Amino acid sequence: MPADAPDANALTTPLAWTGANGAIAGCNQAFARWLGVGVRRVVGRPLASLDAEQPERLREAIARLHADSAPLRLRRVRLRHPEADEHFADLWLSPHGDDGVLVEAHPVDEFPGDDPALLLPAALAASLKGLAHELRNPLAGVKGAAQLLGRRVGDDASRELVGLIDGEVGRLTALLDQLLSPAPPRAHSALNIHAVLERVLRLAESDAGWAVKLLRDYDPSLPEFEGDADRLTQALWNLVRNAIEAGAGSITLRTRAEHGLRIGDALHPVALRLEVVDDGHGVPEALAEQIFLPLVSGRAEGSGLGLALAQQVAREHRGSLAWRSRPGHTVFTLLLPMVEPEDPE
């Protein structure tokens, strides 16, 4: 991502990225303004040197990030440029380029109040609010049409499809309400991840028909865990729909249990590894370093919001979302804790 990347400068979320040497290779205008200096004063400075309390913490986090490639969250980091005042932020660190790091800074007050992790990132919320207003009326029309259609059909298959439409309209309406009036996520409840995946597959069958082969590779021994079934459905449907739109001929949903897995800075005794594998044309090389940023899309008609939402849902579940891709083989991996993390030694 070049230092003058227009997609980055259009965002209100402070973003910076480093090279393999740990020095800041570029940042958007929001990051520089938030620190209180110009962009040129930021570029070239070691990222760890901005930590006014524990520079070693950032160095260790970067080393750990390179070791397992899962995004890391550092809470309430006190950052200070030598020429400006100090600021507090939660930092999200993700792999970037060849051994570089992408940094999202979510500013917090000096004295903690509400956890910003419970709110949508500022850039995503701002992008979606206008869209949410525009979608409410069409969704109400679709719901009304589905209800009228439901009174006219008589066979079970048609009634099932009408029920699917009605259920999805309800879920999307609830999502729009959440975007228009942000609130902490709903309390999690016990869920079966395979029931969520079957719902996603039903949506995919309705969307792609016989054009795409949908394959299941489930671990039937997986137990239930605490989560939000609707939010996970939204995230996984976004991943599957992206695969369909990437020209996939087959899509595989795979579940496995992982033991002693580290996600971020926490070690989890048991975690779910959920993979969406497709044989489409892959992630465009030009977007490889910024696909999780809001408003970034490889399609002219794309909103660029699906992957940003999927990553947000992963974080709501204390998990992570990563990917690897080459033409003919793309894998998005969702890691979700199934058991509370172990206490650090």
From TrEMBL:
Q: Which PANTHER family match?
A: SENSOR HISTIDINE KINASE (PTHR43065), SENSORY HISTIDINE KINASE_PHOSPHATASE NTRB (PTHR43065:SF16)
Q: Which residues form the Histidine kinase domain?
A: 130-340
What is the name listed in the Swiss-Prot or TrEMBL entry for this protein? histidine kinase
- Which Enzyme Commission number(s) are on file for it? 2.7.13.3
Q: Which GO terms describe its molecular function?
A: protein histidine kinase activity
Q: Which InterPro entries match?
A: HATPase_C_sf, HATPase_dom, His_kinase_dom, HisK_dim/P_dom, HisK_dim/P_sf, PAS-like_dom_sf, PAS_4, Sig_transdc_His_kin-like_C
Q: What is catalysed by this protein?
A: ATP + protein L-histidine = ADP + protein N-phospho-L-histidine
Ranked from the top, the taxonomy reads:
Bacteria, Pseudomonadati, Pseudomonadota, Gammaproteobacteria, Lysobacterales
Q: Which CDD domains match?
A: HisKA (cd00082)
Among Pfam families, the record links this protein to: HATPase_c, HisKA, PAS_4
Record keywords: ATP-binding, Kinase, Nucleotide-binding, Phosphoprotein, Transferase, Two-component regulatory system
**What top-level branch of life does the organism fall under?**
Bacteria
